[in-house]
Amino acid sequence: MDVSNFYAEAMMENKLKEFVEEAPKPHRDRIVDKETGEERYMKGSDLSFRDRSCFHKLARMVYKMTRCLYVGVIFYFVPFTTLFAQFGFSNEVSH
Predict the structure, then answer these.
(1) How far from 26 is each of 4, 23, 69, 85, CA to CA, in Å?
(2) Residue 42 and residue 28 in contact, taking contact as beta carbons nearer than 8 Å
């Protein structure tokens, strides 16, 4: 598990190593949470779809479609395929 750490520590004066170790934090706005009244950092879910950029809207739609496909395959298609495969293989073995 530490192979990547050993590699990174072995690098001498590398620009990438300096950037990774001391990367500047991105600017994030602070807002007051509507439900709790506490101040917190703004999340992506706080933006309405209308306020996003065109690229971000397209990327969000692609993400949602990919996520639906992934969830559909992993949680629905694979279990049913396994169920039907058991019946298919059991019929082939018994003949």
Answers:
(1) 25, 9, 31, 49
(2) yes
DSSP conformation class of 16: H
The Cα-based distances of 52 to 32, 42, 58, 67, 87 in angstroms read 20, 14, 10, 20, 49
Report pLDDT digits (tens) over 59-73.
989 999 999 999 988
Contacts (Cβ under 8 Å, ≥6 apart) of 11: 17
Please state, in angstroms and rounded to a whole number, the distance separating the CA atoms of residues 41 and 39.
7
Residue 53 is encoded by which pair of tokens?
A: 């950029």
Give the whole-angstrom CA distance, residue 81 versus residue 89: 12
**Beta-strand runs (E) in the chain:** 30-32, 39-41
Block residue for tokens 């996520």: 67
pLDDT of residue 69: 92
